[in-house]
Amino acid sequence: MKKQDLSVKNVVAMGIGSAIYVILARFTSIPTPIPNTNIELVFPFLALFAAIYGAKVGFAVGFIGHTLSDFIMYGQTWWSWILATGVLGLIIGLASKKLDLKNVIFGIKQILLFNIVQIFANIIAWIVVAPIGDIIIYSEPANKVFVQGISATLSNGITILVVGTLLLKAYAGTKIKKGSLRKED
Fold first, then answer.
1. How far apart are CA 161 and CA 118, in angstroms?
2. What is the pTM of this model?
3. CB 25 within 8 A of CB 69
4. Using CB atoms within 10 A of its CB, is residue 97 exposed (0-12), middle (13-18) or buried (19+)?
């Protein structure tokens, strides 16, 4: 198998994606009754970048974007949740080849695959990585962090299901499909 290094396009995507992540995290968070847990509209955007550019970019945008947004908004970082965000982007990015957004109409099969993957990614990120990290790194009480993790899984899963699916559908609609008579610019 050929080793693929980061292309200039992917490095640029990481930078732009991280910057957009910071802006969206700052201005589109909707508080919930669960302490330190919000409905985050930044995660559908992360899912879009991961699905388009793959696992490396998905991880980097999540990790760098979350690190910067934590530091800018709170003056400190919460590493367990930063890592979880990177893992979310990584897992969704791993499915990008199967989604084949450049060559396939984003139909029912791709929508189902995307949403199964993103739900799995949310479970791993917010019910495994973030709470266990909180317990190990910050000595947080287990009952508190697992409630936060379940809340984050539900809210992020729903926002990605709705907004992420719409973003991917719109993106896929802009791509020229194999066999099309239209010429690519």
1. 8
2. 0.91
3. yes
4. exposed
Domain range summary for the chain, segments of one domain joined by +: 8-174
Q: Does domain 8-174 have CATH number 3.40.50.720?
A: no
H/E run at residue 30: strand 29-31
Nearest to 118 by CA among 160, 87, 152, 62: 160
CA distances to 45, 69, 168 from 26, in Å: 14, 7, 23
Q: Angle CA(73)–CA(74)–CA(75) in degrees, nearest 5? A: 105
For 60-117, write each residue's pLDDT tens digit.
999 999 999 999 999 999 999 999 999 999 999 999 989 888 777 789 999 999 999 9
Alpha-carbon dihedral sign for residues 174, 101, 164, 21:
negative
Q: For the chain, give me the number of helices (H) and strands (E)?
A: 9, 2
Residue for token pair 């697992």: 146
